[in-house]
Recover the amino acids of this structure.
């Protein structure tokens, strides 16, 4: 089936540094998402991106977070600066249309020290 | 707010026995709930197992079934005879139509099938 790729699979950084998580969505998809899962907790919605804009974000999407997809390339989540509580697995997802299935990537495991 | 509650932790079942993983939901947003079961097999990403968008309907895939029960606000996952290859983490999820399509997930249930 359709594949969503995420790069890197693991990232370790020091608190206060910047990190960019990359997502390569399914090629013709139009809606993009980031979810966050802290160990032992539910996977939670962060943000939805469509047509170059953030359509909805949750309270977890702090001011230090930003997303973009320049020129149809990677869909990125940037955290600047990082905090200890940002340690989690971040999942990217994409879908074609409003009623279509969301396809998920394998996740990026972020550890902030 | 919208939420999903499912059987917590790990469920261990012997091969060829039946399985049920409970899922109930609460949808307070304006819109119509759609319900999903996603699965993560060891070493793989999250993938859709089945979905039902209309109350009263049943979805099925790979021998698994789930019925959207609006009155009970439930969407339990069942299988009559599990196989060792069904060992995975199962997530119940809710999407409310009219919003941006975000999914609300349960905590996940780890299924361990013993040979």
């Amino acid at each position: 089936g359709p594949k969503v790729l995420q790069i890197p699979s693991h990232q370790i950084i020091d608190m206060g540094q910047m990190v960019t998580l990359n997502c390569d969505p399914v090629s013709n998809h139009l809606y993009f998402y980031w979810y966050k899962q802290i160990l032992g907790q539910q996977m939670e919605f962060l943000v939805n991106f469509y047509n170059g804009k953030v359509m909805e974000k949750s309270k977890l999407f702090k001011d230090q977070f930003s997303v973009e997809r320049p020129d149809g390339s990677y869909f990125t989540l940037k955290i600047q600066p990082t905090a200890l509580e940002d340690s989690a697995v971040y999942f990217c997802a994409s879908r074609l249309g409003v009623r279509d299935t969301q396809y998920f990537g394998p996740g990026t495991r972020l550890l902030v020290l | 707010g919208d939420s999903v509650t499912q059987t917590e932790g790990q469920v261990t079942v012997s091969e060829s026995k039946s399985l049920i993983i409970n899922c109930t939901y609460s949808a307070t947003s304006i819109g119509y709930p759609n319900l999903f079961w996603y699965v993560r097999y060891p070493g793989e990403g999250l993938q859709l197992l089945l979905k039902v968008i209309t109350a009263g309907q049943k979805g099925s895939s790979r021998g698994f079934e789930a019925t959207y029960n609006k009155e009970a606000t439930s969407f339990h996952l069942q299988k009559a005879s599990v196989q060792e290859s069904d060992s995975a983490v199962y997530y119940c999820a809710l999407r409310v139509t009219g919003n941006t399509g975000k999914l609300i997930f349960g905590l996940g249930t780890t299924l361990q099938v013993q040979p």
Q: What stands out?
A: Residues 69 and 75 of chain A are 4 Å apart (CA to CA).
